[in-house]
Amino acid sequence: MSRAGRYAVGALGLALAVSALASAGPDAAAGQDAKHAVWDGNRTTPAHLIPLRDENDEPIIPTETDPLPFSVRFTCGPCHDYKTIQGGWHFNAMTATKSGRSGEPWLQVDPKTGTILPLSYRKWAGTFDPMALGLTTWDFTLLFGRHFPGGGPAEPPDEEVLAEPASRWSVSGKAEMNCLACHNKSGRQDPSEWAKQVLRENLRWAATAAGGVGEVGGMASRLKGTWDIYDGPNLDDHEWAVVPSVKYRTVDFDSKHRIFFDLNYPPSDDRCLACHSVSPVDAAQWSADADVHSTAGLKCTDCHRNNLGHAIVRGYEGEAAETGNTTAESFTCRGCHLGENAAGEKSVVPGRLGAPFPKHTGLPLVHFKRLACTVCHSGPKPTDGFTRVRTSRANRLGIYGVAKWSTDLPAVIEPVYAKDARHKISPHRLVWPAFWAKISGEEAVPLKPEDVEAAAGDILKPEERIAGILIALSQVMAEDETPVLVSGRFVFAPNVDGGIDASERAGAKADTPALWGIGKGGDVLPLVPKFDPDAADKDPAVETRLLEFLQALGTVPGAPGQPVIIVKKTLYRLVDGFLDMSEAPPEFAGAAGPGWLAEGTLAPLASDFDIRTVTAKAGTEQTLTEEQVRLVLEALARSGERSDLVYISGGRMFRLGKDGKLTAKRDAAAEPVTWPLAHNVRPAQQSLGWNGCTDCHSGGSDFFFTTLRGTGPLLTANVEKRSAASFMGLGGLFQRFFGLSFITRPLFKVVLAVCAFVIGALVFLAGLLFLGRLAGFLEKRSEP
Amino acid sequence: MMFTIIVFLSFIGVVAGLAFHRFRTTREEARATILYSELFKKYAAWLALRTLQSARKASPKAWWEYIKALPLWRLPVLEKWLFVGLYGSFAYLAASGFFFAIFVPRGLYGFPLVGHVCAGGLFAACLAVIVIIKGRNFISVPKPVSLSPALFDPRKMGITAARVKLAAFWLFALTGFLLALTALLPMMPLLRTSGQKFMFEFHRYCALASLLAAMVFAGLELFSPPKG
């Protein structure tokens, strides 16, 4: 191009730039908003090659030193209005005016204090408002942020941050709504990484790390509360209190520092299932079936859809009337398959997404009147004793790593058929709450687990103490040796998490006394071998071993005294780091093995209470004994709580009687929390009733007559027991009688059919006769 | 709601019709005028008087005496129990069915429903036997029809109380058949939801027709004027 040409192009460019600047302004911005709010009709998802911006709305240069993590608000916000999305279902629990149908509550589980507390910011029956219990948004985020998509309580307004002086928002930053959590198509999206970052209090870094956008190091949880992101890295500490930092995957950026996000407009099922998986406890992965809609090719978001407001269609009857979103009528079972609204009116066009019209041949109408579709079609089939499942959010599923994150507690039970808000029977999931509480008026107000733990002192720590001893001893064990405690039918050994694992010994008696030993190749050897300390030819290695044991026991945290070992009448202990051998005082006569010497008295290595408690709980999932509950209630009373104090577990409320014994009774506060389930929907051939009425209506069907026992952290026989029919509000006697009537029903049908045939035939004949005479075909018979 | 309205209107209509029949056949004043308005006035006065008189007389004891005096108890033993089965089951079916349909929004449920189903079976069995053994007594004997203007004149159609009673019997039998059929078919794996809905409604209206037929039959049978 000639010089004149270059000038001409330059001038033209300048003119265009000036005119563009002149035309930009509020109107243009409004036009842009409108453009982004309204779909242009194209059904494709645009390629998202976009510049990242940090929380100061500054562009991110991935190659610069210590770049900040990207901010969703300022990266995605320019095109997708952030405030509008904040009103969405996943983010508005604290601000929504309507709660909608009950959903799965957040379950605060603390095994040590035996707490299973259903929490929700929404006003759902059976749940507690976290704020009313003194849980700040900071506490809530650390407890449950692992399964948040950001936003909501994890992104509180600034005034709330200031009102929570104990929180560390200024260090961690807020976890903004993470669009990538749901919309990222890339296999790099890692919910486990999100959970780890949240637990490290790296909230503002979590989206960057979980989205695979960059590698995040450091832990905000180890930084001082005064640290601020503008303070930069901690130059003095590269080992412990390392400041979180990002190393971006520069390969994903182009030369203009734009990153390519591989996004889905409607999220894929994997993204939903990260937080919404439910699986039977004992099911193998390969044997688990998906929802019939998924196998038919539908995605979660085909039905659970939303607009920019992210008010996701939940798909229950009555939702349209509650929310005003009439589209929701199409995405209930009845809407899609029958074209009916909640009132049974033909208000929508059925067959959306190819939904087949159900025949329901031979199904009496009362079933449609009294039951939700999900009773016959959703969840596992009723079994004896119900099905125990684990859910992503309750049992911390889907977080993978070296440590085991998933938990057995809480016990989530399904399908419990109970009446819903529409008085229709529908399948529910159920959890029995467990918590310590003070009675205030008619209400049981839960105590915070940390307050209970503080008041309980050592009562809740038998496992900790025994683990401390075993872990200390493991320091001096050979590679093929493990320190163990044998008690009752169980052998206790330390595990990698700093706790103890119990394994059952075949053939062992329940009253086997406690013995500290060494596990070796499947055998248990005594910790202190048999030998005569006074023998001249004793093996010096034995005493060396005793020295090692005493040294190891000396490291036990909170040891009640000096470690000693008594062999016959000889007392071994450490004096100035050397093994000291002396004659045991006469008051120690009969004692043998390791123990603690404090102020002239000898205490066993672990107290009878500790051993009794861990032995009782071994092999169960319970974490408290009745003795512990009694002691904790006494401790709470001593700690200044003047109220009536109770513990709730397994559907019963426990309190101390006047005689100091534990009493239990039913109470409304101990009632289980339930919420309707809708998935997985089974294929039609696996629905209830496919094999006939006796799928449910028989003398002993699991649908009506299986019994649910209350479960909880307390090891007790005193639990609530209820039949399935009682949850439905139906009389068990009638259902049993009605079920038995189906034995004679085939005969009844035959009798009715014969009678109908006889009556019909005679009426028909009489009619023919009448007609024949009317027509003159038949003459009246003359009387004889 | 519609069903409830129809039930009440038809029930009142049949009771009023039967009463009018009795008024017309037993009271002199009914034949004293041919003016419909006059006739209606006299009928209304008579009906009010009879209602008051009946209400005064009615008592459990009176009803018990009335039931004891029914010719039913003088029938041969098998026949007696056959009719007891028919009347008893029909009374329970009508009472339970209409009470729950009209006054209980949930409809018939629980033990009353089980009783209704059992009574239905008994009713069908008794009715089948009765139609076999008694049906011949209710065969109508019409003259061969011929085309004439009289064919369309109600007064010349030959509608008599006896013939209405015969028609009521066969209507009762026909509705009994339909009731059994509409109870049976929904129990079979044949009908879809719309078919079930239709059968449910049809069963109710058949029950209403059956009840009305029974009322007409019983009214004409029990309150027929003395012969001769």
List the SSEs and their pairings.
The complex is a heterodimer of chains A (784) and B (228).
Chain A: H1 3-23, H2 26-37, E1 48-51, H3 72-75, H4 82-86, E2 106-110, E3 115-119, H5 137-144, H6 158-162, H7 169-172, H8 179-183, H9 191-199, H10 203-210, E4 214-217, E5 245-248, E6 258-261, H11 269-276, E7 278-280, H12 292-295, H13 300-303, H14 319-323, H15 333-338, H16 366-370, H17 373-377, E8 387-391, H18 392-395, E9 412-419, E10 425-431, E11 435-440, E12 443-446, H19 449-456, H20 462-474, E13 481-487, E14 490-494, E15 500-504, E16 515-520, E17 523-526, H21 540-553, E18 562-567, E19 570-575, E20 578-583, E21 593-598, E22 601-604, H22 608-617, E23 624-625, H23 626-638, E24 644-649, E25 652-656, E26 662-665, E27 673-676, H24 702-705, E28 707-709, E29 714-715, E30 721-723, H25 724-728, H26 732-774
Helix pairs in contact in A: 9-10, 20-22
Chain B: H1 2-26, H2 36-57, H3 60-68, H4 77-103, H5 110-134, H6 161-184, H7 193-222
- Terminal CA distance of chain A reads 131 Å
Order of helices and strands of chain B: HHHHHHH
Q: Strand order of the main beta sheet of chain A, please?
A: 7-8-9-10-27
The largest inter-chain interface, given as chain pair and residues per side, is: A-B, 38 and 42 residues
Helical/strand content category of chain B: mainly alpha
Please identify the oligomeric state. Answer: heterodimer
Structural class of chain A, by secondary structure, is alpha+beta
